[in-house]
Amino acid sequence: SWNPDTDCCDWYCVTCDSTTNSINSLTIFAGQVSGQIPALVGDLPYLETLEFHKQPNLTGPIQPSIAKLKGLKFLRLSWTNISGSVPDFLSQLKNLTFLDLSFNNLTGSIPSSLSQLPNLNALHLDRNKLTGHIPKSFGQFIGNVPDLYLSHNQLSGNIPTSFAQMDFNSIDLSRNKLEGDASVIFGLNKTTQIADLSRNLLEFNLSKVEFPTSLTSLDINHNKIYGSIPVELTQLNLQFLNVSYNRLCG
Q1: Whether the predicted model's global pTM rises above the 0.85 cut
Q2: Do residues 185 and 206 touch, judged by C-beta distance below 8 A?
Q3: What are the structural domains of the chain?
Q4: Given pLDDT bands bounded at 50, 70 and 90, which one contains residue 250?
């Protein structure tokens, strides 16, 4: 419990730096927090981890004061009822290594500026109500190439051709309205392990795709993909493969 008469470093869900006693982590799981994310979280300048997870009564937009947390490395706001857009100010948090905004009611387009986060290892925007195209800038991340999770939204248009320059370890674009050629995600020189492109409107010739030897899981079911399954694909150490409900032959 949070008793104002006791040291906040002893509070549940709060962690402090052992040397400075400054709060560096606030992780609030599966509770009954209601209303909006309090603006006062922006007044914790040494915060490195901020997490509100499985809080169904948490509503409103993503709190703008979070932009003040320049030392933030881990931000998870997931399984809540927060709404509004994915804010552009998140790109100011240059130390972020993990950004998870999944399982919310976020709407609008994905800000292209998120590609300017140089230390990002994982980006979760899945299971929202996001619309528009995947930003072309996501084929030009300036630092690490993060694991990318955009599934279960309403994204449309083509997968950016700039993805040919990116080597995603794990990418999930499933259950959107994406069209056209997804072969740019793959390549012999890449190290992709997991790719889920299922339940879109993708249309390309599978027989001409060169898959990385690192691939362990491929799901492309429920698209308009044609051609035949390449022999090279059968020689990979795949643990999961689903190519059903397409237009394949042979």
Answers
A1: yes
A2: no
A3: 8-248 (3.80.10.10)
A4: confident
